[in-house]
């Protein structure tokens, strides 16, 4: 497995303003083998990048020794694909269609997609669950042809969005499309906030998992403040790694540590190295 760090973990990463060449250098210097890029409506990687702008960024990526294969999107928090407002849903499709196109132009292999928000501590939306699932299905249906054309996997993440609380439900949703470009971006740390056991989800989702995020969480806190440095929380790391190996997973393991702080990259690289050796 390949140890990676999220662009959002870098200084000014959440603002999407950290120059890519610097981000690549800093990730490598900290000891990572991979960097996950992130896309936003504005900033370094945007859905409306021109082909010329993509070529410049791709040259920087190819000039680095790092593995750069994934693109994470948080745009669903601002433009909810399951919103009651049809214009918001349409904007979400527009933005993520652009993100898929840009991912393909950059030579990336996967886009992380939050398929919709029902209820969340970081969103004001409150959407009826059956409406949200129907709209998430419509969004994925519209994005899959774009993903196929771009040569990029569209990967649904389990995140604090109030949608798909069960691995069985997520399996059913993904399997309902029977499309080779659709899969799961599995976030192990996010599950602890739902009082669920990450290794069990891995065993159930199995080969539907195409990429993996890791973070740690203190269940005694139970809120967003419970996210913490790797190895400082309650993640069952040895079981989680064993479960990933059992399904044959060998791709990137990206630490998504937010927000940036002094020494974060170095602490995370050291901890992730220990986790991957379990």
TrEMBL record:
Q: Which InterPro entries match?
A: IolE/XylAMocC-like, Xyl_isomerase-like_sf, Xyl_isomerase-like_TIM-brl
What sequence ranges are listed for the domain Xylose isomerase-like TIM barrel? 24-261
Q: Which domain of life is it from?
A: Bacteria
Q: Which Pfam families match?
A: AP_endonuc_2
Signal peptide as annotated in the record: none
Protein name, please? Fructoselysine 3-epimerase
* Species annotation: Mucisphaera calidilacus
């Amino acid at each position: 497995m390949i140890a990676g760090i999220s662009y959002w973990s870098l200084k000014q990463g959440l603002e999407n303003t950290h120059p890519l060449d610097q981000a690549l250098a800093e990730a490598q210097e900290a000891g990572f083998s991979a960097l996950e890029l992130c896309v936003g409506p504005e900033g370094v990687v945007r859905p409306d990048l021109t082909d010329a702008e993509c070529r410049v960024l791709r040259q920087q990526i190819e000039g680095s020794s790092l593995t750069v294969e994934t693109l994470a999107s948080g745009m669903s928090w601002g433009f909810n694909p399951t919103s009651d407002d049809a214009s918001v849903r349409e904007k979400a499709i527009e933005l993520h269609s652009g993100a898929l196109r840009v991912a393909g132009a950059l030579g990336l292999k996967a886009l992380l997609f939050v398929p919709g928000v029902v209820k969340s501590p970081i969103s004001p939306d409150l959407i009826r669950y059956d409406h949200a699932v129907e709209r998430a299905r419509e969004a994925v249906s519209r994005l899959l042809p774009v993903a196929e054309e771009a040569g990029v996997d569209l990967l649904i993440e389990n995140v604090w969005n109030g949608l798909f609380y069960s691995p069985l439900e997520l399996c059913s949703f993904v399997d309902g499309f029977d499309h080779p470009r659709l899969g799961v971006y599995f976030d192990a740390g996010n599950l602890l906030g739902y009082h669920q056991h990450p290794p069990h989800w891995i065993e159930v989702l199995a080969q539907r998992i195409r990429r993996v995020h890791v973070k740690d969480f203190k269940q005694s806190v139970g809120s967003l403040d419970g996210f913490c440095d790797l190895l400082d929380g309650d993640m069952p790391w040895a079981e989680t790694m064993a479960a990933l190996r059992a399904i044959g997973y060998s791709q990137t393991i990206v630490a998504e540590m937010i927000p940036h702080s002094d020494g974060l990259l170095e602490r995370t690289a050291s901890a992730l190295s220990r986790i991957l050796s379990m």
